[in-house]
Design a protein that fits this description.
This protein has 19 helices and twelve strands. The chain is of the alpha/beta class. The longest helix is centred in the C-terminal third of the chain and has 44 residues.
Length: about 500
């Protein structure tokens, strides 16, 4: 048996599946693509998460596009984080090209151009269906971790949530939370201290500064109503294809705090909402996080711990998370260890640091007698990648240098006209793009403060009136005392002695 035949059997046995699967491409031996040596991803293991890595320009985005298309065809909904703005082309079919035909002939199955059902989402001012969440939905623990608060500050946030719950003050947007922060150390200081304990104004000031930081990155657009229902991410179209939700994030690349806040809240909401699925044979939803370093770059230790917990637990809900980044080292090791599928495009070695990173990346993959992984990592062509997945038993498949299939949809963005048409055809935009600002903590506390101020004014007025009344009463008593007291001259003239003397003199005068 020749080496090529031996390799063909090795790959087919390693990637054999009983259930449904996605065909990613064909394995390569050296520079030659081995036709029909198909590299398959079992649907059963897609909730075991994954990584797509590689240097700029090596084809990561096209790999993401291929996976999204094939998942949609299998009836599995997808959420894509489109940070570079180049995934909207999924809504239009691709075009035949001799090089694409040649590639697919080598792989072993024909190319077919197709378009896919997509939904354009946004968390900023860009056009699309708005994704929002309320402060209440975060809860005190998650919000404290996102804001990187101390233990004391986290305790204050917990008190704020408890106070608002007890008094039926809905916490919906940032202005609600800021208003409560100000209230607990000003007008409501005595009330809060009596019921919940003393709150330091310096601590609330520190919390307020963290809130303002998120607000400046666009958090005022994200926090509020109407809250996005994550169940709307799991829709299928009339043909049974999974809807591909494309979240446009091109204007928040310089706002990592907002991006990580959104991602963590979304994952927490999905985890809380979706039921336990167990081993169902296919995922409920696949989420691709492009430019994943933005999630981890400024994440605190507490935040990383929260993300790690969610990554570990969320797969039981039938959710697969796929991180797309330039280098595997962008993803923390504890999270990297949870990723079952790895698609590694070429890495570039320009510096000693780059060579060290390539050596570490090569160690993430199974050993293979057919490849010098460290060497080939720098030689992979565009549209080629090292692939390792989990088989249906959860065991890593053989490492395969893979000639990847071409995307079936357009490998370019939509025109402005096409984009507007897609957004205009959305079934969700009318549900979520209404501007709601119902009465919440901000308005209710303003009313309460007005009542407090009015009560204080009335109390001051009553006190002043009482004071004036008392002063008048004292004045009246003084006047009364003066009016009833006799003048000394009058007293002498009206005395009995003076009258007897007067009449005695008068008698003598008359005589």
């Amino acid at each position: 048996m020749s080496e090529q035949e031996e390799f063909f059997e090795y790959i087919n046995k390693g990637y054999q599946t009983k259930g449904d699967f996605i065909a990613l491409g064909a394995a390569m031996l050296g520079e030659e693509t081995i036709t029909d040596a198909i590299v398959k991803i079992p649907l059963k293991t897609l909730n075991r998460h994954g990584l797509i890595a590689g240097a700029t320009g090596t084809g990561k985005t096209k790999t993401l596009q291929i996976l999204a298309e094939n998942l949609s065809e299998k009836g599995i909904p997808v959420l894509l984080m489109d940070i570079k703005g180049d995934l909207s082309g999924l809504a239009q079919p691709g075009a035949d090209h001799p090089k694409i035909e040649e590639r697919h002939a080598k792989i072993g199955f024909p190319f077919e151009a197709k378009k896919f059902p997509i939904e354009i989402l946004t968390i900023s001012e860009q056009d699309g269906t708005k994704m929002r969440a309320t402060i209440s939905e975060f809860g005190p623990v998650l919000l404290s971790r996102i804001l990187d608060l101390s233990e004391t500050q986290s305790g204050i946030v917990a008190i704020i949530f408890k106070y608002c719950d007890d008094n039926k003050f809905p916490l919906l947007d940032i202005k609600d939370f800021k208003k409560v922060l100000q209230f607990v150390t000003q007008e409501g200081k005595e009330e809060i201290q009596a019921e919940y304990g003393r709150i330091s104004s310096s601590s609330t000031g520190a919390i307020l500064r963290k809130i303002v930081e998120i607000e400046q990155q666009g958090g005022d657009l994200f926090f509020g109503e109407k809250s996005f229902d994550v169940e709307d991410l799991t829709r299928v179209d009339e043909n049974g294809r999974g809807i591909i939700s494309v979240l446009r994030l091109t204007d928040i690349q310089d706002k990592p705090k907002l991006f990580s806040t959104f991602m963590l809240q979304l994952l927490a909401e999905v985890y809380e909402t979706f039921p336990e699925q167990g081993d169902s044979g296919r995922p409920e939803l696949i989420i691709f996080i492009d430019e994943a370093h933005l999630v981890f770059e400024e994440a605190t230790k507490a935040l990383l711990s929260q993300i790690e917990s969610i990554v570990k637990l969320i797969r039981s809900k039938g959710i697969g998370l796929y991180f797309v980044t330039q280098n595997p080292k962008d993803v923390p090791e504890d999270i990297l260890a949870q990723l079952g599928l790895k698609v590694q495009h070429a890495l570039r070695a320009f510096t000693a640091k780059d060579r060290k990173a390539i050596k570490l990346a090569a160690e993430n993959y199974p050993d293979s007698k057919y490849y010098d992984t460290k060497e080939i990592l720098t030689q992979l062509g565009i549209g080629e990648a090292f692939v390792s997945v989990l088989n249906e038993k959860g065991i890593p498949t053989p490492l395969a240098r893979t000639m990847l299939r071409a995307p079936m949809s357009r490998m370019d963005i939509l025109t402005d006209k096409e984009l507007k048409q897609v957004i205009g055809n959305s079934r969700l935009i009318h549900k979520y793009n209404q501007e709601l600002d119902r009465e919440s903590a901000y308005e209710l506390l303003n009313k309460k403060i007005d009542k407090i101020n009015l009560a204080e004014e009335n109390a001051i007025k009553e006190a002043a009136e009482e004071k004036e009344k008392a002063r008048e009463q004292r004045s009246n008593r003084t006047v009364s005392r003066r009016s009833t007291a006799q003048n000394p001259i009058v007293k002498v003239l009206t005395s009995a002695t003076f009258i007897r003397a007067f009449f005695g003199i008068l008698k003598k005068v008359i005589k």
